[in-house]
Amino acid sequence: MDTSFWAVGHGIFLIGCQTGGQTGNEESAPVLSTPEIVEVPSHPPLNKADVRTLDSSIMGRDYTVYVGLPRDYSAETSYPVVYVLDGDYMTMLVWSLADVLAFFNNIPPVIVVGIGYGGDNFDSIDHLRSADFFGVRVDDFLQFIQVELVPEIEANYSTDPTDRTIFGHSLAGDAGLYAMFHEPELFQRYILSPWSSYQNEKEENEYAESHDDLPVTLYLFVGSLEARQRVSNLYDILAARQYPGLKMEMDILEGDTHFTVIPGATFKGLISVFGK
Questions:
Q1: Sheet holding 61-68, edge to edge
Q2: Within this chain, do residues 56 and 79 fall inside the same structural domain, yes or no?
Q3: Per residue, what are the HEC states of the chain?
Q4: Could you give the number of structural domains in the chain?
Q5: Distance in angstroms (rounded) separating the CA atoms of residues 109 and 112
Q6: Residue-wise burial string across 157-170, b where 16 or more C-beta atoms lie within 10 A, e elsewhere
Q7: CB under 8 Å to 189, separation ≥6 — which residues?
Q8: pLDDT tens digits for 124-167?
Q9: Of 75, 239, 249, 250, which is the most buried if we count CB atoms within 10 A?
Q10: Both 245 and 270 in a single domain?
């Protein structure tokens, strides 16, 4: 019997293996062959991906934008869009999980748009993301998304402009909350795990002073092995407000750290916010 194992990811390869050989009892047993390394496309073969460069006049630099289309994408259909912060290393994860969930009718087919910086140097990326997500330029970054990125996506792809989701983890989760409290109509769904407790509670308090509703769908997540109070405290504050239009769920994923929480929470978050 022959079998093959496929691995898909960034810098993708195929590992082949075959069975054969004999045991001491002269019975057939599987034996790994020498791995064969073969380059394959950098995205799942049943989907189409675009990588674009967007020159932002607001931010004064280029962004790398990854666009993952659903299976059987058609210009005759309008799709919800999931905007993914930290797109350089989160896009493939969100896109792949969304593809699986849509295939089994757990969520509708979606377009996944990753907002990234290009390259693979984490230190360089981390410096840029920190300034964008949690700093003096966070308002400019939000304006970049609203004024430059979203119109570009909606002009080039068949999207539903009334159904946008934002995904953010850690500092990117703070940026997602900043968007929710400052431009709540920009996104309708939020999948977030914020890093800051004080700043987000301050933003929420300022929002509550001038608003009596928050009509969004929010999924908050955190691992049980990290400082979960920063998320659970915000959840409790929002719940106490009793915003009539707020649909909210929080998950504390048992046994997960700040980083291992991401795959499971992404899977559950997509189901939670799309409500199927």
A1: 49-56, 61-68, 111-116, 79-84, 159-170, 189-194, 217-223, 247-253
A2: yes
A3: CEEEEEECCCCCEEEEEECCCECCCCCECCCCCCCCCECCCCCCCCCCEEEEEEEECCCCEEEEEEEECCCCCCCCCCEEEEEECCHHHHHHHHHHHHHHHHHCCCCCCCEEEEEECCCCCHHHHHHHHHHHHCCCCHHHHHHHHHHHHHHHHHHHCCEEEEEEEEEEEEHHHHHHHHHHHHCCCCCCEEEEEECCCHHHHHHHHHHHHHCCCCCCEEEEEEECCCCCHHHHHHHHHHHHHCCCCCEEEEEEECCCCCCCHHHHHHHHHHHHHHCC
A4: 2
A5: 10
A6: bebbeebbbbbbbb
A7: 163, 164, 165, 166, 216, 217, 218, 219, 273, 274
A8: 888 899 999 987 799 999 999 999 999 999 999 999 999 999 99
A9: 250
A10: yes
The tokens for 6 are 């496929």
Q: One-letter amino acid identity for 4?
A: S
Mean pLDDT of 38-54: 67
Structure tokens at 104: 């089994």
20 and 80 inside one domain: no
Q: Which range marks the domain in which residue 2 is found?
A: 1-41
190 beta partners: 166, 218
End-to-end Cα separation, the chain, in angstroms: 40
Q: Does one domain contain both 204 and 178?
A: yes
CA gap 145, 163 in Å, rounded: 15
Report the half-sphere exposure of 129 (CA within 13 A, side-chain side).
Answer: 26
pLDDT at 123: 83
Residue 185 identity (one-letter amino acid): E
